[in-house]
Structures are given as structure tokens and as C-alpha cells.
Amino acid sequence: MISVKNIYHDYEGRGNFAVSDVSFSIEKGRIFGFLGPSGAGKSTVQNIMTGLLSLQRGEVLYDGQPIQSLKTKFFNQIGVSFEQPNVYAKLTGLENLKYFAALFSVPTRDPMELLDRVGLREAANKKANDYSKGMRQRLTLARALINSPRYLFLDEPTNGLDPSTAASVRELIREERDRGAEVFLTTHNMELADSLCDAVAFINEGKISAMDSPDALKLRYGKRRVAVLFREGEQEKTETFELDDRQALADFLLRVDPIKVHSQEATLEEIFLRVTGKELTA
Ligand SMILES: Nc1ncnc2c1ncn2[C@@H]1O[C@H](COP(=O)(O)OP(=O)(O)OP(=O)(O)O)[C@@H](O)[C@H]1O
Ligand SMILES: [Mg+2]
């Protein structure tokens, strides 16, 4: 379990906190989504949790051990995929993975098998420099998985990927969770968060403004709606009603020729907007 307790970060030492009073925990075998607009403080938190930024205030505990007390063993147990691809441009995909595998003192995964899983088997012997942006990103993900990490940090893992590669990356992340990793996932992509995460936190201007499972957030903040598909002359049309407004729905149903009525859930995107007053993609 990873516990983050009341962390703060001030980059310039002038009392301007990029992150303030952030607390959450991630249990073993769970995917935790960290969602917020650009500049919200997501990468800052990930960098503190992985030791790239020093911990200024608060606590980060790995199975109860403070991050400051963790040494090489910890390095063997984490996998990090950064926003910017952290691979060597002059090496091929395969050489990159072999190189990084050799840095660990724990058993590592077969580089070729991993390249295959991220759709890079064909490009295994091509220099990373000649990869497209999406390919480099997939190589970065493969790098993060090479040591079968217990703690996995992923910053925007499906950005810029085509739908089928994005789907296979999702599946790969689920497998990591299922083998018992704690996964910290940073994203703007609400749909990804909804489909993958056991719990999510909304972060806005350095503070957490809501945190729960996606379903619980939808129940708490989402307005329940129904969509009515109806016939008008030769056409089929749809009209949407909030369940609070039952009279309008009832009147409408009596007036038209309904074909189908189905309930609609609020999306995490809409809930984020309601909770923070901000668009996530801003
Ligand atoms: N090295 C730095 N020095 C000073 N300020 C920084 C530094 N890095 C980040 N910040 C500031 O801290 C705040 C949070 O930035 P952070 O990179 O954590 O956001 P983010 O949520 O990861 O955004 P994005 O979605 O764009 O990646 C921003 O106001 C940013 O300008
Ligand atoms: Mg970031």
C-alpha cells in the first residue's frame, strides 16, 4: 500500500504551493487515477512519490516505510513512465529494453515479449529516434514494465495512441493490477479513468476536490437522466430529461410516439466540471 499524507510542494520557496495538503492511499492490486487539468499538480505529486522531487512537507509511505528510508530495493520495485519519453534515441527499441533490464537486480521480463505487447515487435530493431511520438510513448511504457514493478506510475499512458493500441495498453495495465501492482495513473482522459480506475481523485489548483470510486462519484454528483427515442413522422429523434424533472418527462411521453426509453449516467467529465467549475481538457 502507498500512503500519501498531507503533502505540499513549493517550487520557488515563496509560499506559492503547486500542491497543497494532498492525501490519498493506493491499496495493493488497485488502480488509482489522478485527474486534473494542465498545471493542476499531477506530475508534481508523481515526482514526489517517485523521489524525483524531494519531499518538503507531509509523508509518503510504501507499506508503512517512509520514502526517505527506501534505498536500492525500492528502485527495483518501481516502474515509471513519464510524460516525456525517457528512452535513448540512438538505441533501437530492443536495445533500449535490454539496457534498462540490465540495471535491475531482480528478474526482468523478456524484452521482445514486451515489445510485442505494446505493438512494437516489427519496429524492435529500429532506432527510437525514428519512432513516431506514439511509438516512443509505447516504448516508454514497455520500459516501465520491464522489472514487473510492484509500484507502477503512468503519466498519460494512452495519449496519442490509435484506438486499438490504446485498448491493448489498457489491457496491459489491467494485467499489472491483477498481478498485484499498485498503479498510479495520471490522465486528462476521463473515459480511460472510468474504464480502468478503482478510485479516482480530482485535483485542481494543487488540491484534491473529490475522491472516490467512479461509480460512487457518479451517484453522488451526477444527475440521473433518461433519454427518450421517439418517432416523428419518418424520423427517429432523441430527447433527454433529468430525472428530477419527472413532470416534463411524463408530459413528453404522453405527447409523442416513444420507441425506447433508457437511463443515462453522468460522465466523470461532467462531474469534474460540476465539482471544480473547470473543463478537464483546459
Ligand atoms: N520546475 C518547476 N518550477 C516551478 N514551477 C513548476 C515547476 N514544475 C511545475 N511547476 C508549476 O507547478 C504547477 C503544477 O505543475 P504540474 O507539472 O505538476 O502540473 P500537471 O497537472 O502535471 O499538468 P499537465 O497536465 O500539463 O502535465 C504549475 O503551476 C506549474 O507551473
Ligand atoms: Mg503533468
Structure description:
- The chain is an alpha/beta fold and 282 residues long.
- The chain has 2 domains: 2-87 and 141-216, Rossmann fold (3-Layer(aba) Sandwich); 223-264.
- Helix content is 33%, strand content 28%.
- Helix 6 links the parallel strand 7 and strand 8.
- Helix 4 (111-117) crosses helix 5 (133-145) and helix 8 packs across helix 10.
- It is globular.
- The model has no long low-confidence stretch (mean pLDDT 92).
- The structure holds adenosine-5'-triphosphate and magnesium ion.
- Adenosine-5'-triphosphate (ATP) binds at residues 11, 18, 36, 38-44, 83.
- Adenosine-5'-triphosphate (ATP) is lined by residues 11, 18, 36, 38-44, 83.
CATH superfamily of the largest domain: P-loop containing nucleotide triphosphate hydrolases
- CATH class category name of the largest domain: Alpha Beta
Q: Biggest sheet, strands in spatial order?
A: 6-7-8-3-9-10
User: Helical region count?
Assistant: 10
Shape designation: globular
Topology:
Elements: E1 2-9, E2 19-26, E3 31-35, H1 42-49, E4 57-62, E5 65-66, H2 72-77, E6 78-81, H3 93-102, H4 111-117, H5 133-145, E7 151-155, H6 163-178, E8 182-187, H7 190-196, E9 199-204, E10 207-212, H8 214-221, E11 225-232, E12 235-242, H9 246-255, E13 257-264, H10 268-276
Parallel strand pairs: 3-8, 3-9, 6-7, 7-8
Antiparallel strand pairs: 1-2, 1-4, 4-5, 9-10, 11-12, 11-13
Helix pairs in contact: 4-5, 8-10
This protein binds adenosine-5'-triphosphate and magnesium ion.
